């Protein structure tokens, strides 16, 4: 028995569609989420203050990691702008985020089977050619995971008390700030390790794992990344929220608004 194939097609004109569901909720929520983070991170980058805690434990905002000390003549430059281009570029060229902001900001298209402002897809040409740099941003992002992990380790080393007075010796301790930075780094690692480019780097261009060097190791690594890749969108949003929250927490402690509670 023959079956008829039905295809959903977008109508001509921006927003024109036969869909009856609230298709606009997703693009709107995405635009609000990404827009809020963009505004917050820009304000914090320009602030160039309250990003480091050195009394008690060592807490460094992920926006300012690694800790760059500029000469006095460069005081007008925020170190954050020398840092954020790398993780920002990784997210901006991310396959998931490209879909997200193409739909929410450029309405290209706003959603499946919904009319868009352009008559044809222009592709990632001209200015958007930089999207092809994603695999190179991945290499830098992997380095940042190491740097942020180092910050977590430093957050476990106490050399002074809360007043800044030196302790008799270096002690190990965990505070709420330590856990915040640890969770932030973990989510960023999950987002980075679930990257489509990393999955291709590990398992791409291989027709036979047993025929290449370290084939068994590559196959197991590819399977692991593939499991994480299924939740890539989840890791993308959770890590974005957490990196903003981690910076905000460090700001609250560094500015004296709250005290970082030591757990043990």
Largest sheet composition = 2 strands, antiparallel
Count of discrete alpha- or pi-helical segments spanning 4 or more residues: 9
Unreliable spans: none
* Structural class computed from helices and strand pairing: mainly alpha
Give the integer mean of the pLDDT values: 88
Spatial separation of the terminal alpha carbons = 70 Å
Count of beta strands: 4
What do these coordinates show?
It is a single chain. Helix 1 crosses helix 4, helix 5 packs antiparallel against helix 6 and helix 6 (176-193) packs antiparallel against helix 9. The model has no long low-confidence stretch (mean pLDDT 88). Helices cover 50% and strands 6% of the residues. With 264 residues, it is mainly α. It is globular and about 70 Å long. The chain has helices at residues 25-47, 79-83, 85-92, 95-104, 134-154, 176-193, 196-203, 215-229, 232-254; strands at residues 52-53, 59-60, 157-160, 166-172. It is built from 9 helices and 4 strands, in the order αββααααββαααα.
């Amino acid at each position: 028995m023959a079956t008829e194939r039905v295809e959903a097609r977008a109508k001509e004109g921006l927003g024109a569609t036969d869909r009856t569901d609230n298709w606009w909720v997703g693009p709107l929520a995405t635009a609000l989420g990404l827009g809020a983070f963009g505004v917050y991170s820009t304000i914090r980058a320009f602030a160039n203050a309250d990003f480091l805690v050195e009394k008690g434990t060592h807490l460094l905002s992920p926006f300012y990691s690694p800790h760059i000390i500029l000469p006095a003549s460069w005081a007008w430059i925020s170190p954050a702008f020398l840092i954020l281009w790398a993780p920002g570029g990784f997210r901006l060229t991310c396959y998931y985020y490209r879909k997200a902001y193409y739909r929410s900001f450029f309405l290209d298209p706003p959603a499946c089977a919904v009319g868009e402002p352009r008559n044809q897809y222009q592709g990632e040409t001209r200015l958007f050619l930089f999207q092809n740099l994603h695999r190179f941003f991945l290499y830098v992002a992997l380095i940042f995971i190491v740097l942020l992990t180092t910050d977590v380790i430093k957050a476990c080393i106490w050399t002074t008390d809360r007043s800044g007075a030196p302790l008799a010796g270096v002690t190990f301790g965990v505070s709420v700030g330590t856990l915040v930075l640890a969770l932030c780094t973990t989510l960023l690692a999950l987002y980075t390790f679930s990257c489509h480019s990393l999955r291709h780097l590990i398992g791409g261009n291989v027709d036979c794992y047993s025929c290449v060097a370290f084939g068994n190791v590559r196959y197991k690594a590819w399977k692991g990344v593939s499991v994480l890749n299924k939740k890539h969108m989840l890791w993308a949003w959770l890590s974005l929220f957490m990196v903003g929250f981690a910076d905000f927490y460090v700001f609250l402690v560094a500015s004296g608004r709250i005290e970082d509670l030591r757990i043990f």
